Amino acid sequence: MIDSKLVMELRAQTGAGVLEAKKALEETAGDIAKAIEQLRKSGALKAAKKSDRETCEGLVHAYIHGGGKVGVLVEVLCETDFVARNPEFEALAHDLAMQIAATNPLYVKPEDVPSEMVEKEKAIYVEEVAGKPANIVEKIVKGKLDKWYSDVCLMRQAFIKDEDITIEDLIKSKIVKLGENIQVRRFVRFAL
User: Fold this and answer.
1) DSSP run (H or E) holding 60
2) 104 and 160 in one domain?
3) What pLDDT digit, counting tens, does each position of 50-87 carry?
4) Cα-based torsion angle of the residue sequence 173, 174, 175, 177 in order, rounded to the nearest 10 degrees
5) Is 110 within 8 Å of 149 (Cβ atoms)?
6) Which residues pair with 59 in a beta bridge?
7) 129 in the same domain as 71
8) For burial by CB atoms within 10 Å, which of 81, 89, 130, 179 has the most?
9) Are residues 102 and 159 in the same domain?
10) Which residue range is the domain that position 19 belongs to?
11) Total domain count for the chain?
12) Among 133, 127, 177, 168, residue whose Cα is nearest residue 19
């Protein structure tokens, strides 16, 4: 079993996704240097390197579900119109719209959540575990906050078609496959 601290350390050094980092560490028996090399070979680091590149093309995808009871518009960006017209990119946009329709996230990523809302959630969690030692309270609050982010932030959610990966991991895999930076800019969900 690979320690989660080791996985987080590898992620901090490489920018790889949780699953890629964990898999690389398992394959290299916990050796971080070998795991970094493994990630380089697999292409997972390519996604992290492309994340700073400008995305000024893309598409807005519309999805209607439930006989017209739920509708989603999602804006997915990439670097070139060539990729924006690629059927795999279009399928990704469709999957993202279905995800939004099914799970009703409020934000794209944790950085988008207003700080007042985060502080309010933290205060609730601290109150729930009052009386425990400070270091344990901190770990419990962090865990509960991470769980909350996975409910309200699209990028942290488990993918509805494969719950072993997050939306963030799905997008990173498409970045590697298509060779361009891909970003979810915004979305809106309508429901009757």
Assistant:
1) strand 57-65
2) yes
3) 556 677 789 999 999 978 999 999 999 998 889 899 99
4) 90
5) yes
6) 76
7) no
8) 89
9) yes
10) 4-50
11) 3
12) 168
Spatial distance between the Cα atoms of 6 and 9, rounded to a whole number of angstroms: 5
CA distance linking residue 184 with residue 168, whole number of Å: 10
pLDDT in tens, 7-37: 878 776 666 667 778 888 888 888 888 887 7
CATH number for the domain harbouring residue 176 = 3.30.479.20
Record the pTM: 0.71
Query: Is residue 39 left, alpha or beta, with left meaning phi > 0 and alpha meaning psi from -120 to 50?
Result: alpha
Report the b/e string of 12-23 with b at 16+ CB within 10 A. eebbbbbbbbbb
Same domain? 104 vs 61? yes
